[in-house]
Amino acid sequence: MRYTSLTSSRSPLAIAVCFATGLLGAGVTAVQLAVHDFWWWAASLLVMTILLITLGLYRLFHFAYLHQEQQQLELQQLQQQLQGAEHRLQETHNLHSLLLHHAGQGIFGVAADGRINFTNPAAEKIIGYTAEEMAGKKCTR
Questions:
Q1: Residues 46, 27: Cα–Cα separation, whole Å
Q2: What is the pTM of this model?
Q3: Are 109 and 84 in contact (CB under 8 A)?
Q4: Angle between the 39-102 and 12-35 helix axes, to the nearest 10 degrees?
């Protein structure tokens, strides 16, 4: 059963303030009834108020518990999505590394400032330098 309070825009603090206000109003009314010798009505009002406050607090705590469960479920889903994305990224990296390593053409990775980031084995054979020797060197035109 899904409570409508899960989608409510009212915060738990606002609900607690409403309950406290209701309790104060019921207490004032009970005192006024007792002053005028309406003890039966005063006692009944206080018992009903206590029951309503108890029910309200139960709903408030239940809402907080359901909200916490919902957050944990969302966190688990995000963690699963992250793991899936990391796995796909690793697969893509492995595929690109495999393609670069076995390509017959010389491939250079050049940064915006003109420095060599990476090379494949074919580029090493063509140029005659190792990848470590070329790393960080500037390309000239």
A1: 7
A2: 0.45
A3: no
A4: 180
